[in-house]
Amino acid sequence: MADHLATLVAEYGRPEDVIRLASLPRPALEPGMVEITVERAAINPSDLIPVTGAYNNRTILPFVPGFEGVGTVSRVGAGVTGLKPGDRVLPLGASGLWQAALQRPADWCFAVPDDLSIEQAATAYVNPMTTLRLIAALKDHFGVSSRLTGRRIGVTAAGSAIGRMLLMVLLAEGAEVTAIVRSEATAARLPALPGLQTLVTGQRPIGKDMVFDAVVDAVGGVTGGDLLQNNLSAGGVFLQYGALSGIPITQEALSARPDVRFAFLWLRSFVHSAGRQALSSALAHCFDGLRDGTFASEIAATYPLSRIKEALALHHSPDRIGKVLIDPRC
Ligand SMILES: NC(=O)c1ccc[n+]([C@@H]2O[C@H](COP(=O)([O-])OP(=O)(O)OC[C@H]3O[C@@H](n4cnc5c(N)ncnc54)[C@H](OP(=O)(O)O)[C@@H]3O)[C@@H](O)[C@H]2O)c1
C-alpha cells in the first residue's frame, strides 16, 4: 500500500509551527475497521485546541488533527457488514480527518445522504450537533419540552458559524434573541433575521439594564464574566461552550452569582455517551438543518492539504468570513 499525505503533530505549540506535513503508511485493516479516503475536512477552532497542548492529559503524541470531514470508504476490514467501498461517510468520535487515508471503526462511521454537497457534508457535524445540544440544555434548564417562547437569550460570538446557527434556531423557538458581537463590522455581517437584536461589546462593559434569562457563551474572559455577573436574571443559566478569548471565566465572576446556573457543554461528552442510535438521530436533524439552511456554513476557501499553512493563516485572519476547508487528497 502506498503511503498517504497527512498532517502530524509531534509536539505541542502554536498550530502554524507544529502542524507538519507527513507521509504516513497505510497499515493492514484490523477486523471491524474501514479505511476512508477523506475528501473534505473543516478547520474548526476546536481542532486547534489539542494542538496547543490544552488537553495534554487526554491527547497522545503524535496525532493527526481534524475532528470533522467527509470521505468515501475505500477498504473494509473483516466482519464489516454495514459499509462497502464507495459509501460516503462522516467518521465521528476522534481526530484524524486531516489526512488522505483514515482508518476508523465501522461503528463510528455514519452514512451521508446523496443530496448534500461535499461542503455541506464536511460541515454537517460539529457545529450543527453542538447547536442541537445547546438548545436541548436550555430546554432542560427551563423545564420546557416544547419551545423557548419569550425567553431572553444572549448569544456571544454571534457571528461565528455556530453563533449564526444558534440565532436562527433560537428565533424559530420563539426566544427573544440578542446577538452579542465584539465589533460593528461583525454586527453589519449578521444575517437580517426578523426580531433579532444586536449588542456590540467593543471595549465597553455591557450596561446592567440588559437582562437575559440565558447567555450562551463561546468567548469566556471579560465578556463572559461581565455577562455572568451583571446581566442574568435570578434562576437564569450561563451556558458556556467555548473560550475564544483564551481566558477562563474568573472564580470571582462564578462566585458572584450563586443564583445563576453555570454549565460548560462539551459535544464530545454527548458523542461518547449517546450511542449509535442517538447519534444517527442527531445527525438526521443536522442534515435537515443543512437542507433548510439553518445549519448552513459559509465557506471562505478550500485548500489542498499540501497548503495547510496557508489554510491556517486564513483561518486565523481577522478578514476571514466563513469556514476554511481542506482537501486532504492533494
Ligand atoms: N464545547 C464544544 O463541544 C464545542 C463544539 C463546537 C464549537 N465549540 C466552540 O465554539 C466556538 C465557535 O466555533 P465556530 O466554529 O463557530 O467558530 P468560527 O466560525 O471559526 O468563528 C469564530 C469567530 O468568533 C469571533 N471571535 C473570535 N475571538 C473572539 C473573541 N475573543 N471575542 C468575541 N468574538 C470572537 C470571530 O468573529 P469576529 O472577528 O467577526 O468577531 C471569529 O471569526 C469556538 O470557541 C469553538 O471551540 C465548542
Please explain how this structure is put together.
It contains eleven helices and 15 strands. It is of the alpha/beta class and 330 residues long. It has two domains: 4-123 and 297-327, Medium-chain alcohol dehydrogenases, catalytic domain (Quinone Oxidoreductase, Chain A, domain 1), CATH 3.90.180.10; 128-267, NAD(P)-binding Rossmann-like Domain (Rossmann fold, 3-Layer(aba) Sandwich), CATH 3.40.50. The strands form three sheets. Strands 3, 4, 5, 6, 7, 14 and 15 form a seven-stranded mixed beta sheet that branches. The two termini are 17 Å apart. The mean pLDDT is 96. Bound molecules: NADP nicotinamide-adenine-dinucleotide phosphate. The site of NADP nicotinamide-adenine-dinucleotide phosphate has 25 residues, from helix 2, helix 4 and helix 5.
List keywords for this structure.
Rossmann fold; Quinone Oxidoreductase, Chain A, domain 1; about 30% helix; about 325 residues; 11 helices
Tally of strands: 15
Which residue ranges are poorly predicted, with pLDDT under 50 across at least 5 consecutive positions? none
- Principal-axes geometry comes out as globular
Beta-strand content estimate: 25-35%
Class by helix and strand content? alpha/beta
Beginning-to-end CA distance, first to last residue: 17 Å
Task: State mean pLDDT (0 to 100 scale).
Answer: 96
Biggest sheet record: 7 strands, mixed
Give the SSE layout.
Blueprint: E1 4-9, H1 15-18, E2 19-24, E3 33-43, H2 45-48, E4 69-76, E5 88-91, E6 101-105, E7 109-111, H3 118-122, H4 126-142, E8 152-156, H5 161-172, E9 176-181, H6 184-189, E10 197-200, E11 212-217, H7 221-230, E12 232-240, H8 251-256, E13 261-264, H9 267-274, H10 276-292, E14 299-304, H11 308-316, E15 323-327
Parallel strand pairs: 8-9, 8-11, 9-10, 11-12, 12-13, 14-15
Antiparallel strand pairs: 1-2, 3-4, 3-6, 3-15, 4-5, 5-7
Helix pairs in contact: 4-5
The structure holds NADP nicotinamide-adenine-dinucleotide phosphate.
NADP nicotinamide-adenine-dinucleotide phosphate binds next to helix 2, helix 4 and helix 5.
